TrEMBL record:
InterPro entries: Ap4A_hydrolase (IPR050126), Calcineurin-like_PHP (IPR004843), Metallo-depent_PP-like (IPR029052), Ser/Thr-sp_prot-phosphatase (IPR006186). This is Metallophosphoesterase. Residues 65-189 form the Calcineurin-like phosphoesterase domain. Residues 422-447 are annotated as: Disordered. Pfam families: Metallophos (PF00149). GO terms for cellular component: cytoplasm. One of its GO terms (molecular function) is phosphatase activity. Gene3D superfamilies: 3.60.21.10.
């Protein structure tokens, strides 16, 4: 088991939920609050003799890294990015760089099976590492979610909007799931932490207190079941059901004047935060102040900027959150929740000490951009160079990041804020005025047409 930089004990409720429970009894050497003590000591949580830490958190190799954001089946963008970044057909880099994939390789885009095959081949060749994203986890759990019918082959009406796409070979399904099963939840070394959505110390501690088998999908389901039992015993489920009763026929109607359902919001927050695998792969959520409509239904709990509470020395790199390299119409992408990056430069390190970076630039929405072939895509697939801290994008742009390592200042919650950093319709970062005065602007933007992906790399 490997936990770098974790404290021996915590002085607050490690579930992180807003229940306000006090620190109570030790479990597996950690001090945890009563609900989590109940959760981790529940017989249903014990699966096999294997320790959870084993295979969940792995060590990054030494040397320079190229950390690639969520690919979401966009194979051409990935091939273009690798070519731009200087990788050869075998995934070798002249400077010995190592690729790290942040998870969410699949769904929505035109060639999820192709992306998985490529990344698997890079990993088998020792050229790359990859962590588990929530989209891979959905497949491991057997969940049918928007954009993942390429795997299930059920030709669902909802997913026809993503066609044409390459379907998974049903015979290759088990092998693909076995590949996802081998992916760790986090990768660490002394100068870096890599996780798909959130580095949330209480969840890390909770994971370390749990015994498990090697099956993430099964673990996830058991953690959910345990959380449900706990919340039922506390009456939260009954309260939420009562609240929902009046509105149950209106949850998919964006026009209805939906009131805030507080118990439903609390239940959603608790279900998210009591499952540490959920927190690491899909982030920290809290009861919302107001209901909002997103991805086809009313919601009462929202994602929060967990990085605003991250004050550790070791930087964290994540994907998952739909950052906008150029301003995008979030509503058109089905995202009705508040934009966590509102007013923050897409090149900015996040949090009070500028120690967190998100490398997801919304290429998961490119399937929709492709429907307007005359318009250049505004989404990007990007990689973050470490330790250089520069961004390389599939379009050939290379830009610096800003705001890392700034000292904490009173009253300053997010570094490198710059409102409306690019007006809608503006050209790329070349035209951007330097507003932060801290780090260099674009290092290099190649002239001429964009690189042709498939012609450069063949796999
Ligand atoms: Mn994700």
């Amino acid at each position: 088991m490997l936990f770098i930089g974790l404290p021996k004990s915590v002085e607050r409720c490690i579930c992180g939920a807003s229940s306000g429970a006090s620190v109570a009894r030790p479990v597996a050497g950690r001090r945890v609050c009563p609900p989590v003590a109940l959760l981790v000591s529940h017989p249903g949580a014990i699966m096999t003799q294997k320790e959870l830490g084993e295979g969940m958190i792995e060590t990054l190799p030494d040397g320079p890294l190229d950390i690639v954001g969520d690919v979401h089946g966009e194979l051409d963008a990935l091939l273009a990015l690798l070519a731009v970044a200087g990788y050869d057909e075998q995934g070798r880099h002249p400077d010995g760089r190592h690729l790290v994939f942040l998870g969410d390789l699949v769904d929505r885009g035109p060639d999820s099976p192709g992306v998985v095959r490529l990344v698997q081949r890079l990993i088998d060749g020792g050229r790359a590492s990859c962590i588990l994203g929530n989209h891979e986890l959905n497949l491991l759990r057997g969940e049918r979610k928007a954009g993942n019918d390429w795997f299930w082959n059920e030709n669902t009406a909802h997913d026809r909007r993503y066609h044409p796409w390459n379907w998974a070979d049903p015979a290759a399904g088990p092998e693909m799931l076995a590949f996802f099963e081998r992916l760790p939840l986090a990768l660490v070394r002394s100068d870096l932490r890599i996780v798909h959505a959130a580095w949330h110390e209480p969840s890390m501690v909770a994971l370390s207190a749990l015994p498990t088998g090697g099956d993430f999908g099964e673990l996830f389901t058991r953690l959910d079941d345990d959380a449900d039992r706990l919340l039922e015993s506390r009456g939260v489920v009954a309260q939420a059901k009562h609240e929902k009763a009046t509105w149950r026929h209106h949850f998919a109607d964006p026009e209805v004047d939906m009131p805030m359902l507080h118990a439903v919001g609390q239940l959603d927050e608790d279900r998210q935060m009591l499952n540490p695998v959920r927190v690491l792969t899909s982030g920290v959520e809290r009861r919302a102040a107001q209901p909002f409509f997103a991805s086809g239904q009313w919601r009462f709990a929202e994602r929060v900027r967990w990085w605003d509470d991250y004050t550790d020395d070791v930087p964290v790199v994540v994907g998952h959150y739909w950052r906008q390299f150029l301003p995008l119409d979030r509503k058109a992408l089905g995202k009705g929740d508040p934009d966590l990056f509102d007013g923050v430069s897409p090149r900015a390190w996040l949090g009070p000490r500028g120690r967190v970076f998100c490398v997801d630039f919304s290429v998961g929405g490119r399937w929709q951009e492709r429907k307007s072939p005359d318009t250049a895509p505004r989404s990007r697939l990007g990689l973050l160079r470490w330790p250089e801290k520069t961004l390389v994008l599939d379009t050939g742009e290379m830009v610096g990041t800003v705001g890392r390592g700034s000292a904490p200042r009173a009253g300053r919650t997010a570094p490198a804020r710059c409102r409306a950093w690019l007006p809608a319709g503006a050209a790329g970062p070349r035209s951007r005025p330097r507003s932060d005065g801290q780090l260099p602007l674009p290092l290099h933007v190649p002239p001429g047409p964009l690189p042709r992906p498939a012609a450069v790399l063949r796999w």
